[in-house]
């Protein structure tokens, strides 16, 4: 609330009035009280936006939904690489009272409190469709973004190491990883199956997801394993294969 009132882009008195004008009924105590505060902050973001500008609303939900649902916080640049969307920083900075958006690029964007993504993804709490983040849809968007990035970037010998190189003897391996893999691709390789498990068999995007998985295993399985080895997370691959098997079982039974 303090961060909201002290916003550099708005008059403090106006911000304070928005807070004290919230309903005073005792029905707003507890969880619903913070829900009203979140709603008021989000409404301000949409203040000067055309109510029928669905493209803006959709991009906003995609960006904020990604911050809310990623399994490991990502920087603004990594989010831009993953989602292929511009102006992420300006969108997220408008929510400075709800998100921690670091000025330094490598630092990740974080929610200040878990109650915010819980609010955004609960239709009983977040009743305004302009900023409601439907979890299934957005897990699917993140998953497909992971696959698009892996399709574009994964390749044999991605770090351009010498033939038969021993990883423990490569002095600048971490530098090579940052230059050729980066945070967004690393995230995609580590976590894509965790987003997959959040997509039910009844989802309208199941066909698209299955096609992406088929392409991935046909063209990039070994390239993916190489990235997991380079990032010292080969065990992730074992759990990921189990996740895929589990998801296909659910889809076939559903």
In short:
59% of the residues lie in helices and 2% in strands.
Spell out the blueprint of helices and strands.
Elements: H1 2-5, H2 12-20, H3 31-45, H4 54-69, H5 76-83, H6 88-93, E1 99-100, E2 110-111, H7 115-120, H8 135-153, H9 173-180, H10 182-196, H11 206-219, H12 221-230, H13 234-253
Antiparallel strand pairs: 1-2
Structural features, described:
The protein has 254 residues and is mainly α. The chain has two domains: 2-120, no CATH class; 135-253, no CATH class. 59% of the residues lie in helices and 2% in strands. The protein has helices at residues 2-5, 12-20, 31-45, 54-69, 76-83, 88-93, 115-120, 135-153, 173-180, 182-196, 206-219, 221-230, 234-253; strands spanning 99-100, 110-111. The protein has a two-stranded antiparallel sheet. The protein is globular and about 65 Å long. Mean pLDDT is 87; it is low at 24-30.
Oligomer kind = single chain
What structural category do the secondary elements indicate?
mainly alpha
Could you give a short account of the major beta sheet?
2 strands, antiparallel
> Ranges with pLDDT <50 over ≥5 residues?
24-30
Give the number of domains.
2
N-to-C SSE string, H for helix and E for strand: HHHHHHEEHHHHHHH
Q: Strand order within the widest sheet?
A: 1-2
Strand content: under 5%
Overall 3D form: globular
- Classify the helix fraction into a percent range: 55-70%
Radius of gyration: 21 Å
N-C termini distance: 44 Å
Number of helices: 13
């Amino acid at each position: 609330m303090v961060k909201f009132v002290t916003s550099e882009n708005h008059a403090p008195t106006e911000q304070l009035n928005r807070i004290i004008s919230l309903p005073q009924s005792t029905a707003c105590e507890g969880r619903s009280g913070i829900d009203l505060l979140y709603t008021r902050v989000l409404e301000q973001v949409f203040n000067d936006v055309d109510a029928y500008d669905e493209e803006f609303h959709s991009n906003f939900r995609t960006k904020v939904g990604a911050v809310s649902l990623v399994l490991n916080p990502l920087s603004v640049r990594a989010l831009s690489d993953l989602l292929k969307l511009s102006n992420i920083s300006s969108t997220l900075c408008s929510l400075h009272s709800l998100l921690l958006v670091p000025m330094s690029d490598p630092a990740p964007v974080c929610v200040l409190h878990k109650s915010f993504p819980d609010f955004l993804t609960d239709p009983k709490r977040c009743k305004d469709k302009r900023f409601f983040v439907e979890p299934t849809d957005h897990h699917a968007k993140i998953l497909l973004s992971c696959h698009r990035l892996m399709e574009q970037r994964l390749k044999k010998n991605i770090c351009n190491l010498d033939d038969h190189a021993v990883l423990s003897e490569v002095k600048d391996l971490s530098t090579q990883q940052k230059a050729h893999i980066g945070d967004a691709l690393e995230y995609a390789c580590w976590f894509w199956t965790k987003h997959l498990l959040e997509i039910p068999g009844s989802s309208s995007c199941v066909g698209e997801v299955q096609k992406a998985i088929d392409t991935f295993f046909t063209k990039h399985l070994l390239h993916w394993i190489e990235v997991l080895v380079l990032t010292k997370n080969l065990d992730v691959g074992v759990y990921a294969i189990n996740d895929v098997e589990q998801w296909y079982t659910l889809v076939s039974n559903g």
